[in-house]
Fold:
Amino acid sequence: MVLGVMHTSVKSAYEIAYNDLRHCYTDKGIVAGRKSKRLHQYWARHGFFASLGSLHLNDFRVVKNNLELFASNQRPSGIIPNQISLGLKPRYRLLAGSVIDSTALFVVTLAAYVKKSKDLEFAKKMFPKATKAVEFLLSKDRDNDSLIEERVFANWAETVLKFGNVLYTNCCFYKALNDFAWMAELLEKPSVQKRFENLALRTKERINHQFWEGNYYIDWIDFRRHDFFATDGNLLAIDFGVADKAQSQMILNKIKQHQMNKVPLKTNYPLYPLWRIPPTLLPLQEYNYHNGFSWPWLGCLNAITLYKVGWKKEAKQTLRSVAELINQNGIVHEVFDEKGKPVNGLFLKSERPFAWSAGFFVRAVNEVRKNA
Structure:
């Protein structure tokens, strides 16, 4: 299914990953997982990130269905729900504000679908929905500084106390603005295109001005700067084009410097302090869920970004390390502990199959495929 020669371990893991990804398909879209009740639902960020792998399989119908499912539950304000139950009841998590990246990733995935499928009619149909989505995102820039402000526990790392300007969220925001400008150009709307190109450029400039520390992007800014190194936002900055080549190389060197890429990629360095994790999680493995555990989707993103900066050997090695975990377990897992074992705590058990990880592995293999 993939052009080019693949290493045996990558080939076998790829077969597991695309089967696991497709196992998460339904006639409505893509569920986050199949094992737990919590994740056997339609989660926006999970399904949208997984879709980037599905598009490499030319599984256009399921990606389109997933986009339509979330678009049909969009609020008049432009909000895309962060979760939809199997019974098709949407959830918006407005108090925490975690609809921000859901809404941004809707636009990103829509643009990716249109680029790959060439489905111009769907682009025309969804453009008003995308317009509402980006206008909602712009409304979250409350101080008009071209960066989104968010509330506590509002992004994918929802067990860590962060608020204000968060790197991960603002990288998603930039990508959504930039992709929306591309769709406006495709649909021959020059004034809209120009406006959003300018907005995207301004956001990119502000991320680089506010977050760049010298050899990486800091994690978030509330009343002050918090200089933790978070792999999610830093790697997305490379993937989405916020970082230039020199910055990208410094970020990737920092990952190697702190040996974060062993199993296969940790969330952050150093660990967040105890008081930033909800007290109920402290005695449990959940404490490290977004605070030091390793996630295959991040490992795949590391391989993709290594390849983008021209470090092809390192990219292939990273891809093989993720493949080894998949092959060892015979299924694509959600999250691993520091010893490289799927998390299996009293209350927290690694989801499997996990669509987000499976989709990212499919994407990574297709983008790092030559002699991988």
About this structure: Residues 22 and 34 are 11 Å apart (CA to CA). The first strand starts at residue 42 and ends at 43. Strands lie at 42-43, 83-84, 90-91, 165-166, 220-221, 225-226, 229-230, 268-269. The mean pLDDT is 95.
